Amino acid sequence: MVIEVEFNGNPSALSTTKADWWVFYDGEGLIWTTPEDIRQLIRVKDMAAVEFIGKGDNVKKRAYLVKRDDIKSIAIKCMGV
Known about the structure:
The chain has one domain (2-80). The protein has a 4-stranded antiparallel sheet with strand order 2-1-6-5, with no helix packed on it. A 3-stranded antiparallel sheet has the order 3-4-7. The protein is built from 2 helices and 7 strands; from the N terminus they run ββββαββαβ. The radius of gyration is 13 Å and the shape is globular. It is an alpha+beta fold. The relative contact order is 0.30. Strand 5 and strand 6 form a beta hairpin. It has helices at residues 35-44, 68-73; strands at 2-7, 10-11, 22-25, 29-33, 50-52, 61-65, 77-80.
């Protein structure tokens, strides 16, 4: 799962969100969690952000690549669709 924190040199997504909840669709269902739980997971796992140009973009983004099972481990709720 891609957790963006910077786009074109500017804070974005996880760095700037004011949302109470984030919902991921993993191809099988919805995974509900909070931005704060994602931040804590990144800290606990001591993850390093990577930079890349995403498909359809023409500028770099900085993001964490987080395993789906790690996101599920902090999920408030998982729902199959």
